[in-house]
Fold this protein.
Amino acid sequence: MQNITLNTITQAVINHGDRGKSHPRLYEIYTSLVRHLHDFVREVNLTEPELQQGRDFLNQASHHTQEIPTGEIHLLTDILGISELVELLQNTHNGTESNLEGPLYVPNAPERQMGDRLGIDPEGETLFLSGSALDVNGQPIANALIDVWQPNSKGLYDIQDLSQPQGNFRGRFKTGASGKYAFETVVPLGYNVPASGPSGELLRLLGRHTWRAAHIHFKVSVPEYTSLTTQIFMAGDPHLDSDTTFAVRSAIVQLQKHEAPDELKARNQSKPFYTTEFDFVLKPFTLSSGES
């Protein structure tokens, strides 16, 4: 009979089963996870009440709310830096840097025409955003599907704010032969991640703030190229250096303000507006992972 002790329990858990014959990669991940978790329990001398607190935390994090319709597990991996670490490990090519999708993506956003306004927000500051989808040699990519979503000028996404129409500040655009895209939106506001649940309580207990730097999300996809999920951030945001999901990297855009009468007239605007540009560089499938 196997004698389970402090010295033998970890290996006993790892050896239980077919030791990776059925699913080698799963077993590799499982083995490392068990070793690290057991080492963690030993290092902090975890008590049974603390273990129960951890169980309760994970149970609460799995519950769906209006703030996080799919539960907080996604948010939890974001605020622990795990999500961004995975991105950094995988983002080894010479195209545009990938970044977090986040928990508020909604598939099948409205299809919009190039130049359309992305959403309704009378109080927002208008932003004209444009750029191109390019290959690694700087050549335009036609028929690239650009899926974009963002919060409004109050830092709220449509699925969090019932006063917004469904699909507000979400849209899908397809590039033409020139590879160019353009749409009208509003300058997004940085926002607090949902903090009414266990993830917010964890941040408070640790003395961490809940702010995300202002950003816009994108998914760019086209046949024969690796799909890209990324975010662009607004220069000047006060939380660029302390985003609570650790997602701010090099994709930071400068907003140019326009308020001259001739500029307002040319864009059919009645108040000052902003412009900025950002190009997406996509990696073809033919490049191996890590090749530059």
About this structure: Helices lie at 9-15, 24-44, 48-61, 73-79, 82-90, 198-205, 261-266. Confidence is low (pLDDT under 50) at residues 287-292. The first helix runs from residue 9 to 15. The CA atoms of residues 76 and 199 lie 6 Å apart.
